[in-house]
Amino acid sequence: MLNSQANDYYRSYFGAYFADYLKDKKRQDAKLNCIMIIFIISVLLISIGLSKPIFAKSDNIDVKLADTGQEIYIQKNFEENIKNKYAGSYVSFPHKGVAHIKKIKYINSKPIKINIVELNTKVNPYLKIKPQTASDKLNSKRTVRKIAQNNQALIAINGGFFKPATGVPLGALMIDGEVLTGPIYNRVGIAIYEDDNNISFKMDNINFDITAYSINNTLKIDNINQPRMLSTYTLMYTSAWGEYSPPPPKNGYNMQIRDGSVIKISANPIKIEENDIVIQSSKEKISKIGKDKKIKVDIKLQEDLQGATHIIGAGPYLVKDSEIFVDYKEQKLQAISGKNPRSAIGYNNKGSFFIVTIDGREKASVGMTLYELAKLMKNIGCDYAMNFDGGSSSAMYVKGRIVNNAVNTEGIPVSNALIVNEINLNEMQISSVKQLKQL
User: Fold this and answer.
1) What does DSSP say about strands 223-224 and 235-238: parallel, antiparallel, or unpaired?
2) What's the CA gap between 327 and 387, in Å, rounded?
3) With contact defined as beta carbons under 8 Å apart, do 204 and 191 qualify?
4) CA-CA-CA-CA torsion for 399, 193, 207, 313, nearest 10 degrees?
5) β-strand 110-120 against 352-358: which pairing, if any?
6) In the predicted model, what is the mean pLDDT of the chain?
7) 18: Cα within 13 Å, side-chain hemisphere
8) Which residues contact 84 (CB under 8 A, 6 or more apart)?
9) Residue ranges per domain, the chain?
10) What's residue 422's pLDDT?
11) Is the pLDDT of residue 6 over 60?
12) Cα separation of 12 and 115, whole Å?
């Protein structure tokens, strides 16, 4: 306790209340206990805070999530599994959650050069997979490298079939929910679903239900933005097709619709403005529905594919329900059944997605048949797999370069590709912060 001189000193500087407090030991002990309790609680709270992911500001004031130990462990585990799985092959890891494998396989003593990209969306949930056209018009072509670079892609492979003269895709194509082209011969396609950071896939034979409605009539539309296969077909064209619609068949009409209203009916090609629709059919059908003046067009996906963000079709199937399944006759693809350069994709229920090219038509690599390709896709782990356009179209792009032995080192210009890029984490996190502030 303080002596009387010290007591007088503190009274003069701090007042009588503080001096009395210093004389009272019980009050001092109680205060000290409170201070110790507050100190211990503060230490615990700081420890808990440090155990959580740390956010740090970069030079451009974006917010970035630091890698945790768990993320590093998952990536290392992914790399070890890939190295063990493809032992004896050249393996590299060009990006988080992405492996590139180069290998040579022998069938009947003949060499075959194979490029495989295996990526895992559970290891890196920010990977995005989508089809991409050569330009905003369907009647155009570019090399896979050019399509990839124009869209900041990490990985790319040539996509579905197309008409060589014009570049128009021959088969189903939907990007970001917009149906660009319809299916041919009910061929197989892959539907890609995007739900926040989750990506999933479904492979099936593709079918769209397209119908035009007026107040008194309905008209079934057989396809969208596809070349005419039968004179009796009713077709629909959008501005993605090109500047003008094709000429109608003999004794047929084009009907131009803008904002739900019939603008023009003609036996000649019609210039298609942005957001216009041109329906092409027989004179009788167009005249019947066109007299109502107001027309609505409805496009529905088959029930099991509804909710998909993207769809790209090609064919045939290679693996279905974890079993080899090659239906090239049903999909009218007998012409491509021999040994050829190949492109293919597949996936499994463990989050792995596979992109494959096979070199062919050369002494160093003779190519594969569809059945040989199907066996390869199953062996590397695909539960589902399908063939893409092959031959001289086959080209695989990995972070700046074509890695397979494509025609002319670049591959020929193609209509569309399947690309892989990564969602911008900074934009996602800033968007999330803004949403939290709004709440």
Assistant:
1) parallel
2) 11
3) yes
4) 10
5) antiparallel
6) 86
7) 9
8) none
9) 4-51, 78-207+303-424, 209-301
10) 95
11) no
12) 88
Q: Are 99 and 92 in contact (CB under 8 A)?
A: yes
Q: How far apart are CA 343 and CA 192, in angstroms?
A: 18
- 112, 95 contact by CB (below 8 A): no
Structure tokens at 177: 């929910």
Q: Which of 176, 193, 104 is nearest to 136 (CA)?
A: 176
> How many whole angstroms separate alpha carbon 420 and alpha carbon 127?
7
pLDDT band at 66, cuts 50/70/90? very low
**Could you tell me the two tokens for 78?**
């992914």
Q: What amino acid is encoded at 404 in this protein?
A: N
